[in-house]
Amino acid sequence: MTLYIKNWTVGDLIANERLFHLEYIDEEDTVLQALQKMKQKAVSSLPVRNPKSNKFIGIIDVLDLVTFCCTKYATVSLQAWDSYQQMESFAKTKVKYVIDLSGRNAWQVISHNRPLTDLIVMLSNPHIHRVGVRGDNFEIIGLVSQSRIVRFLYERRHQLEEGLKKMMREKVEVWAPLHRTRVYTIHMNDSVFNAFNRIWELEVSGLAVVDDDGKLVANISASDIKRTRFYPIVGQMIADLYQPIKDFLRIPEPGKVRLKKKDHVPLSVVPHDSLEHVLGLIVSNNIHRVFVTDPNQRPIAVVALCDLLRAFLDRSVHV
């Protein structure tokens, strides 16, 4: 049976979800509580609720936390007492003051009966990463992300219309011209704080981490802020922010074998790999981007989820 993206609805996307559960946080809760809940629930964003009206007023995302971190610690003092005071202030800040601080997480809502293409258009915007889904009674029943749609399409790739099947077989250099997908890098000896600051300044969600030869050794993203140890009394967050990226991500020295599961193994593709291969990597590893490398393992481009959604949308419209 051939399936057409333009005939699907948002409801079709979530119909087979066994657990379409909405995790949220109240606007009077703290940044520390938001970060802890993101870690606990393994999510990168939380809708923010006004408890009095029981309405959602926005969304807080790891990008907002990174922005807050960069602005709060831009002139950080490494003196223990000053650091403690800054972290305590950071931790106790209420969520309502951090909503869309990055300017890249506007609260968007879509009805479950709208066409799936409408949702893809919304999430093709690099400044929109998640959209609330509204049920029949206008209540918010959950969030959908770019990765959820990409997984949905990949799992149904053999049923898609012929134009999209053809695109699946195309090489990266064909469907994603490399000159249009600039990749930003940072050296593995640079600090975690500088990585977050670069993510904030460049308005991206992740960076390629490279070694002295410019080779790809890891990926650091806004979501890695969840890995910081947020304990003001012992100053662990300051220690995490100002340590080298290679230590924070446990990047082994050249010639050493990775032994720990927590090591950030960089995933990459080459220009002649197919779209299906790229999608398989992204879906099976639950990641948001892969880097395209040259024969010397140097990153020359990046393929993000919004790039994939734009490709699907463009081909679906023109078949």
Indicate how many domains the architecture comprises.
1
The termini sit apart by: 16 Å
Q: What best-fitting shape do the alpha-carbon axes yield? A: flat
Helical element count?
Answer: 13
The CATH topology assignment is CBS-domain
- The tally of strands reads 12
**CATH-derived architecture:** Roll
The proportion of strand residues reads 15-25%
Could you give me the name of the CATH homologous superfamily? CBS-domain
Return the average pLDDT rounded to an integer.
Answer: 84
Indicate the structural class: alpha/beta
Any overview of this molecule?
With 319 residues, the chain is α/β, with parallel strands linked by helices. It has one domain (5-317): CBS-domain, CATH 3.10.580. It contains 13 helices and 12 strands. The chain has helices at 10-14, 31-41, 62-72, 80-92, 116-123, 146-155, 162-169, 172-175, 192-202, 236-241, 245-248, 275-285, 305-317; strands at 25-26, 45-50, 55-61, 109-111, 130-134, 140-145, 185-187, 206-210, 216-221, 268-269, 289-293, 299-304. The protein has a 3-stranded mixed β-sheet with strand order 1-2-3. A 3-stranded mixed β-sheet has the order 4-5-6. It is flat.
